[in-house]
Design brief:
about 140 residues, mainly beta, 8-stranded antiparallel barrel, two-stranded antiparallel ribbon, 3 helices
Length: about 140
Amino acid sequence: MYFLLVEIIQPINCVLVSEDVPSISIVLSERRSNALKGTISNEQNIRGSFYTHKPTQIKPSSWSFENTNIKFSGEAILLKGNEIWHPYQTEIKSHEVNKVLFSGLSSKLSKVSNERELLKATSGFFIIGNGCYGGRINKV
């Protein structure tokens, strides 16, 4: 049973930092079978659970946010510099992706929060940290 849990939930350290408001970050700390799970926070003040989901044949890369009885989701647009990555192109490898835009996150958060810094950060790009490797564990 323990082996099964280790296979499903693996610790990682993937940090996404807002380009516009560097004090807002998303720390993905658990690798699950269908998503990376973490938190979105403003320095040490956690706003909620955040998940990123890899693309499938029928769905693009996506995100979801949960906080008590609130749940939002949307598409994640992955980039290398200013070029968009998607699984059907061959120019950019998934591990080369270094920025992400969480489409609709800011507008959905604005329904439950009026915190300007949070809304500004979530409306722009997040820089993908060195501990991330295309959603996989970066082995050193």
